[in-house]
Amino acid sequence: MTELIELVQLKENISSLENMILNKERKIKEDLKVLSEDLAIMPSCAEKTIKELEEHFQRRLLKDRVTSLTKDSPNDLLKHLHSQIKRQELISGEIRMNLQELDIAVLRDDCFSTVRVLKELLKKIWPLNVQEIRRLIAKAEKAAEMIRNKDIILFVGTTGSGKSTTIQFLAGTRIK
After folding, report:
1. Has residue 106 been placed in a domain?
2. Which of 11, 43, 62, 106 is most exposed, with the fewest beta carbons within 10 Å of its own?
3. Domain that holds residue 145
4. 175 lies in some domain
5. Distance between CA 142 and CA 135 in Å, rounded?
6. pLDDT tens, residue by residue, 61-79
7. Sign of the C-alpha dihedral, residues 147, 153, 158, 163?
8. Angle at 85 between CA 80 and CA 88, to 5 degrees
9. CA distance 150 to 97
10. pLDDT digits (tens, 9 = 90+) for 9-62
11. Looking at the domain assignment, is residue 176 inside a domain?
C-alpha cells in the first residue's frame, strides 16, 4: 500500500515539474518576443549587443531552430561587446567582473548562466530601460482607454478591513 502511495506522490511531483518547465518555457518565449521587438528598433551599442547575445542563448535554452536576428556568432558578439564597452567608456570593476563571468559561461556553453550574467550586465550599464518604459506606458494608455467614460469604484481601507471579501461577495463568489 505504501508503494502505491509513493507512486501516486511521484506522479504528482512529475506533473508539478512538467508544469514548472512549461511555465519557464512560456516565460522564455515571452522574453524572446520582447527581445526581438527591442532589437528591431535599437541602434548599434553595447546594450543591443547584450540583447543579441541574450536572444541567442534564450533560443538555445528552448532548442529553438528559428534564426536569431543577428548573423554573428556568439563569440563574435562577445568580442564586439568587449570593444563597445571600452569605446563607450562603460568599464568599471563590477562590469569587468561580469564580463569575465560572461566569458567563462560562454566558453562552458552554459546557457542559463550566460543569460543570467547578461541580464546583470545590462542592468549595470543600462539602468533605465526605455523600451520597458514605453511598453508600460502603452499598457497604461490601453487600460485608461478601457475605463474611459465608465464609472469607477475604489475600495479603500486598512489591511484586514474586508476590501477583498466585499469585492468577492459583489462578484458572486461563494464565501465559506
Report:
1. yes
2. 43
3. 2-170
4. no
5. 11
6. 887 655 555 677 888 889 9
7. negative
8. 115
9. 53
10. 777 778 777 778 778 778 877 877 877 777 777 788 888 898 889 888 888 888
11. no
In degrees and rounded to multiples of 5, residue 86 shows phi and psi of: -65, -45
CB 124 within 8 A of CB 116: no
Whether residue 50 lies inside any domain: the answer is: yes
Query: Taking residues 152-172, what's their average pLDDT?
Result: 88
| Biggest distance spanned by C-alpha atoms of the chain | 68
User: Which grid cell sits at 18?
Assistant: 512538467
Q: What is the pLDDT of residue 119?
A: 92
Query: How many domains would you assign to the chain?
Result: 1
Tell me: pLDDT of 175 over 60.
yes
pTM, entire model: 0.61
Helix (H) / strand (E) containing 146: helix 130-147
